[in-house]
Amino acid sequence: MEIPEPVHESAAEPVVLVVMGVSGCGKTTVAALLAGRLGWPFEEGDALHPQANIDKMAAGHPLNDDDRWPWLEKVAHWVEERLDQGQSGVIACSALKRSYRAVINRRGSGVEFVFLAGSQETIAARLATRHGHFMPPELLASQFADLEGPGPDEPGARFDIGPAPAEIARNIVDALGLA
After folding, report:
1. 7: which of 32, 111, 134, 170 lies 20 to 30 Å off by Cα?
2. Dihedral of CA 16/44/102/136: which sign?
3. pLDDT class of 151 with cuts at 50, 70, 90
């Protein structure tokens, strides 16, 4: 875990946390825990996908950039609605590429990317036990192929998926100065 300088010591400054990473890294679980702990609105980014994207992934085909742009616009719109209302929030969104994160954070402020990082082997083992999700484990390799971890010039921090989700959420709150 990289420990950044606390960036949001005041609750008066709204921030949207984008909990990101490949499928199966724990985005939804950790994001929901963060939202509950902080009392902030939560959005599951997968719920913003058009049905065509869900159908494509469920059929075992990875999304391409053209598939993702309309979805990323919806994610960015959700983020901007929170900030326009002076409200913080948490959204789970893969945000795999730098160009995707640029769309989500097109204002250049108010967003913190929380990158949940783990090995392909660890995440594959998690996906093998997951049921009821449209994303089949066979697409994990395509997610890792697309993954561009956030650079040092992007807002946010990286957190290892090894600890329990509640501990990861606590680490995020502490590291980002959200307590």
Report:
1. 32
2. positive
3. very high
CB 172 within 8 A of CB 129: no
Which residue is associated with the tokens 């950044």?
4
Residue type, 138: E
How big, in percent rounded to 5, are the helix, strand and coil portions of the chain?
Answer: 45, 15, 40
* Banded pLDDT at 1 (limits 50, 70, 90): very low
CATH number for the domain running over 19-175: 3.40.50.300
DSSP-derived secondary structure letter, 137: G
Q: Which residues lie closer than 8 Å to 166 by C-beta, 6 or more apart?
A: 33
**Phi/psi at 38 (nearest 5 deg)?**
-90, -15
Tokens of residue 60, six digits: 């075992």
Domain extent listing, the chain? 19-175
Which positions ≥6 away from 122 have C-beta within 8 Å? 161, 162
pLDDT band at 134 (very low <50, low <70, confident <90, very high): low
Rounded to whole angstroms, the Cα distance separating 26 from 111 reads 19
pTM of the predicted model over 0.85:
yes
Burial class for 5, CB neighbours closer than 10 Å (0-12, 13-18, 19+): exposed
